[in-house]
Amino acid sequence: MEKLALFTSAAAVAVAMIGVPSTARAQERARDTVTITDSVPNRGLIWSGVAVLGTTYGISTVVAAVSDKPADRALWVPVAGPWIDLGSRGRCRGSCNHEATNKVLLVADGLGQAIGALQILGGFLFPAKRTVTEVGRVQILPMGRGLAARTVF
Fold first, then answer.
1. In this predicted model, which residue has the larger pLDDT, 40 or 14?
2. pLDDT tens-digit map of 80-103
3. What percent of the chain has pLDDT over 90?
4. Helix (H) or strand (E) holding 107
5. Do the Cβ atoms of 128 and 47 come closer than 8 Å?
6. Would you call 78 exposed, middle or buried from its count of C-beta atoms within 10 A (0-12, 13-18, 19+)?
7. pLDDT recorded at residue 23
8. DSSP secondary structure string for all residues of 16-55
9. Is 151 helix (H, G, I), strand (E, B) or coil?
10. Residue 116: CB partners within 8 Å, gap ≥ 6?
11. Is the pLDDT of residue 19 over 70?
């Protein structure tokens, strides 16, 4: 009797399984992958710093080349030049209408050059994280009396 109950249960399960639609699944082939995480210089920060420093220093060199004031010769020095010029301007002689504007522009130029230089430095001090995942491919190589397989990335 016990065998009959076991057989009947197995038959009922088999019939139930036949009525349940199922999809066939292929086995997925495992692929060899390598994930590399490293630090690289932050190119965005470096290039924006080059643009800011280059623009403000370019303006300084134009002023240093065309100005007749001796203090403006300091503008040939990057980053420190505007501050040296600001400190060595002295009292204005003659018309002082534009002297306040010139000092404000020197401060803006000095700040722009300092910010650009700090951005370039920051691009190296605070690197960007880069994650690269490579999928390998299998090479079959003849070896002695047989074949060898290796994964190449």
1. 40
2. 999 999 999 877 777 778 888 889
3. 45
4. helix 99-125
5. no
6. middle
7. 65
8. HHHHS-----PPPPP--EEEEEEEE--HHHHHHHHHHHHH
9. strand
10. 49, 50, 51, 52, 53, 54, 55, 56, 57
11. no
pLDDT(25) > 70: no
- In terms of Cβ atoms closer than 10 Å to its own Cβ (0-12, 13-18, 19+), residue 53 is buried
Convert 49-97 into a string of H (helix), E (strand) and C (coil): HHHHHHHHHHHHHHHHHHCCCHHHHHHHCCCCHHHHHHHCCCCCCCCCC
Whole-model pTM: value is 0.63
Distance between CA atoms of residues 118 and 49, nearest Å: 7
Length of the chain: 153
Q: Which residue has the tokens 């002695």?
A: 144
